């Protein structure tokens, strides 16, 4: 698929892990996996980092919800190198928000998109859209990101993400009509992770 390289470049996001394991023994790992199937990763009583049900637990639950009903996210998703520090960069000034959307989700979205040129950012409506993003090596394919904040609360379904890609054919840009569900899930998870960080900082 022609757009794989640009999608890889586009969504080079550092995903927050739900927590590490205290032991590395094979038997312990097998036991953790067995209990994960019974209780779920975040509610597994053997995972001590989740025991206090603090921010790590909340992020983990957001991660679970962001995966959607199929509960699946490809572990083979390749993270490009060009934007490896995307989530670590300071996204600069923030817009003043009307009380119609969740400010943490808004700021988290701006942080995640801080390396991209923004075409439209409507803080009152909670809508962000990037300019077209090109892979420098392939100018025949382009993608953009659309984000819609739909909640006043910091909840996992409070943000909707959409990736649209086009291919140049006979001097005309045509939608590739591909679904980028996995990439959109990772984008949503990155926004939720950053939003939770903002919430902690402002408590």
In short:
The chain has 203 residues and is α+β, with helices and mostly antiparallel strands. The chain is 32% helix and 19% strand. It has one domain (4-201).
Describe this structure in words.
- There is one protein chain.
- Strands 1, 2, 3, 4, 5 and 6 form a six-stranded antiparallel β-sheet that branches.
- The chain has one domain (4-201).
- It is of the alpha+beta class and 203 residues long.
- Helix 3 (55-66) packs antiparallel against helix 5 (181-201) and helix 4 packs across helix 5.
- The longest helix is centred in the C-terminal third of the chain and has 21 residues, at 181-201.
- It is built from five helices and six strands, in the order H-H-H-H-E-E-E-E-E-E-H.
- Residues 13-24 and 73-98 have low confidence and may be disordered.
- A hairpin with a 2-residue loop joins strand 3 and strand 4 (138-149).
What is the string of helix and strand elements? HHHHEEEEEEH
Number of helices: 5
Flag low-confidence runs: 13-24, 73-98
In terms of DSSP E residues, the strand content is: 15-25%
Instruction: Name the shape in a single word.
Output: globular
Biggest β-sheet description: 6 strands, antiparallel
Radius of gyration: 18 Å
The N- and C-terminal alpha carbons lie at a distance of 45 Å
Structural class: alpha+beta
Mean pLDDT, all residues:
74
Number of strands: 6
Helix content range of the residues, please?
25-40%
Provide the domain count.
Answer: 1
